[in-house]
Amino acid sequence: MTATNSDDPIFDIPEGMDRLRAVMARLRDPDAGCPWDLEQDFATIAPYTIEEAYEVQDAIQRDAMDDLRGELGDLLFQSVFHAQMAEEAGHFDLMDVIRGITDKMIARHPHVFGDQSRDKSADQQTADWEVEKAKERAARAETGVLDGVALALPALMRAEKLQKRAARVGFDWPATDQVVDKIAEEARELAEAQKTLPQDRIAEEMGDLLFSVANLARHLGVDPETALRATNDKFTRRFAFVEGALREAGTTPEGSTLEEMDALWTAAKRAGI
Prior knowledge:
Residues 40-113, 180-238 form the NTP pyrophosphohydrolase MazG-like domain. Keywords: Hydrolase. One of its GO terms (molecular function) is ATP diphosphatase activity. There is one protein chain. The chain is mainly α. The chain has helices at residues 17-27, 35-39, 42-61, 65-88, 94-108, 110-113, 122-139, 155-168, 176-196, 199-219, 224-248, 258-270. The two termini are 39 Å apart.
């Protein structure tokens, strides 16, 4: 690790949020800051913020607590970075962010910080939470049922949230079998589209099919984003098994037939990989 200047006054600031804020302010200082940090804006930093959130989730899935500690720090730093840029532009500062989330959590938990009873099920508390969120959306003049569902969410996650919102006002299939039928219908339409329609219409039909699959996941109580991520991991493990077996046989996927690789894939499944 590169040596630091212990005489720097930043080390006189007690450890904690104040020092972190001071570090961020120094990085953005026009005269003494970091050239890279000074070039950034909200749009350029946003992808890093999303990436750090996924890295937090990855550490949790791996049950890697040391990694999680570091990733949470990276994610916290992203919030501080955005707040610093907002303060420079005169919009708000980090304390406004902290104050806002504190007030929001108090308002959304009247059974903890107010006079409402805590004798509620988790489902009832979730319903109450949605009522409070609806009030907040109304205060922001978001009157449409689907208003406020973030555009930047992963597509499967956003599909599920849109469907949940619509379901609250009764726009939903009453039975899971009907969702399965809808998936079959969309699959047939996609099969027909790929024969006769241009690429943009094929993409549209594919989107319809994926949206219906996300709807089925919701009806089954399955998080589609998590389920697909788990399948991605499973595919990666099994394909690594195939590659390893081929390597031991002195060949590669490129030098093998589909039948050979499929047999190894089946072996991986049987082995519980």
